[in-house]
Amino acid sequence: MEKQVVKPYNNEASSKKEEVAEMFNNISKRYDFLNHFFSMGIDKIWRKKAIKMLRTVAPERILDIATGTGDFAIAALKLKPKEVIGVDISQGMLDVGVAKMKKKGVDDIIQMKLGDSEDLPFEDGHFDALTVGFGVRNYENLEKGLGEMLRVLRKDGKAMILEFSKPKRFPVKQLFGFYSKYIIPFFGKKVSKDARAYAYLPESVAAFPEGENFMNIMRKVGYQNVEAKRVSGGIATIYSGTK
After folding, report:
1. Which is nearest to 224 in space by CA: 155, 162, 161, 164?
2. pTM, two decimal places
3. Which of 103, 114, 167, 197 is 20 to 30 A from 173 via CA?
């Protein structure tokens, strides 16, 4: 039986990729506010942990895929890279990100580019490290996207993937389940004016092949030294792999 594709608007005439781009364009102006509001700022701590795990690579060139408004790209500056490029399929999100970079005075180091995670516009082995924050579950073709990431990574380069997961233990499991199913869609609809965008979040998390299943996909594509670190009681997981 073919697995159903989880999409933001479930329109038969459009692909998941098209709908994800449309969704983020729709909510781009309110995205940063809602993102930090719903996570209570914990997402910043998760990104910092992921960036610390990249220190061993001492990356000079970093690619942040599904960059959104560039939070992971900004966090990567702690590593003192020479170049950081953020790529996203939503121009609306990138526009907010560009303004953010200029305001912070880091637009000389961080570039924001429109691009497709499954067809990256970069040469083989160009980057020392890459990051993806809450983006891989939005890939239309997960293996193709992971393969493209590996292609643009240099030998011994490292990929850090931060993604939501499903907590397994009481009471985090029950609390997160209630929060993601009822609280996030309710307030997301009120603030963003897009009812489907924040209903899609728990649906996409539920459909994502987390944990060992995702690690096996990474290994299948060609990643080495694949590891996973659960954070905040399993609300999210930091996956890593090298080329």
Report:
1. 155
2. 0.93
3. 197
